[in-house]
Amino acid sequence: MSVQETETEVILTHPDNKATTVKILKYGATVYSWTLAGQEQLWLSTAAHMDGSKPVRGGIPLVFPVFGKNETDELLSKLPQHGLARNSTWEFLGQTKSNPPTIQFGLNKNIANPEMTKLWSEEFNLILTIELGADFLKTAIEIENPSTSKDLKFNWLFHTYLRIPDIEDTMISNLVGMKVHDKLLQEAFIDKHPVIQFHQETDVVYEKVTEERVVQVVRQGHPLHTVKRDNLPDVVVWNPWTEKSGNMADFEPKSGFKEMVCIEPGYVTDFVTLQPGKKWNASQILSKDKLKYQAIQ
Ligand code: BG6
Fold first, then answer.
1. Which residues, including other chains, have CB under 8 Å from residue 116's CB and lie 6 or more apart?
2. pLDDT at residue 1 tops 80
3. Segments forming the whole domain that contains residue 233
4. Residue 148: is its pLDDT beyond 90?
5. Which residues are involved in binding substrate (predicted)?
6. Residue 197 is part of a domain; what is its CATH number?
7. In this structure, is residue 297 part of a structural domain?
8. How far is CA 281 from its chain centroid?
9. Could you tell me the distance, in angstroms and rounded to a whole number, from the CA of residue 142 to the centre of ligand 1?
10. pLDDT category, 295, cuts 50, 70, 90?
């Protein structure tokens, strides 16, 4: 059976290889494990809360309707950092395709975490589609504004924690020449480094990166991960390094920052403004793929 549902999670197994699986917690519709032929591709903290008491530290938490902590928007500033999708229990809508196994989860105002909808009471319908390919994982989001009179204003982001052997010999490629906003320096500049390397805490947002730019996590000349994006122009690159991870109670082991890097495709520099009755779609595809070098233009 390629789809198994329990009270708290859903597990997909690829029909051609039973060691290719994806596991999704209904809480947050959080993908918390993805194995390709037996090899785990995502990082998950050993102290992650898996009981719905806190967003999951690791896997692919979903960020909606606000990225980070908004201080200025009249409505969105009331929500906690990264919004309400990662701390709401989603409804499992079932399987839509058998090969590659594909399933859907839904979230709307009526079933979302009431602590959050008290703070932000807009109407929304989200459908998350998860497709487990033999050699890829696709996560796609559809956002509908069901209101008949009001625009829906939001950010979306897949907060993907990728597993890597060692942050110190890992590079991120194909973002050269892009405008980057460094959240720690609070400065924006054009990044001329041919690749991104990590020596300290990194928290940057590459802005309006064209879809042709395929972000790759490269080690010893081979891509460990390839991230393709559709309608997600911004790419956040995050590694908390020693001090920040040391201060996060749910980040374990403390040396775990060496084995993860977040590549987070999103729509976060601007807000999407969706008119009444309209829908918006976006997706990310994770795979290994071949090395592709895209130089500065
Ligand atoms: C990243 C942000 O997307 O998420 C960082 O750019 C933030 O600033 C990180 O620290 C983790 O956020 P949280 O809320 O899961 O601790």
1. 79, 80, 83, 84, 87, 88
2. no
3. 3-287
4. yes
5. 57, 81, 86
6. 2.70.98.10
7. no
8. 15
9. 23
10. confident
Output the CA 68–ligand 1 centroid distance in Å.
7
Ligand 1 centre distance from Cα of residue 179 (Å): 20
Q: What is the mean pLDDT of residues 112-119?
A: 98
Domain count, the chain: 1
Q: Whose CA is nearest to atom 14 of ligand 1?
A: 81
pLDDT value for 296: 78
Question: What are the catalytic residues?
Answer: 159, 264
Neighbours of 210 (CB within 10 A): 10
Which residues line the annotated binding site for substrate?
A: 57, 81, 86
> Which residue's alpha carbon is nearest to atom 6 within ligand 1?
203
Q: What is the pLDDT of residue 272?
A: 98
Q: What is the pLDDT of residue 10?
A: 98
Measured from the Cα of 248, ligand 1's closest atom is 16
Quote the mean pLDDT of the chain.
97
Ligand 1 atom showing the smallest separation from residue 63 Cα: 3
The answer to whether residue 294 is domain-embedded is no
Distance 56 CA to ligand 1 centre (A): 12
Pocket (CB within 6 angstroms of ligand 1): 81-82, 159, 183, 203, 236, 238, 264
Which structure tokens are listed for 205? 């947002």
Q: Does a structural domain hold residue 26?
A: yes
**ipTM of the prediction:** 0.98
Task: Dump pLDDT digits (tens) for 13-66.
Answer: 999 999 999 999 999 999 999 999 999 999 999 999 999 999 999 999 999 999
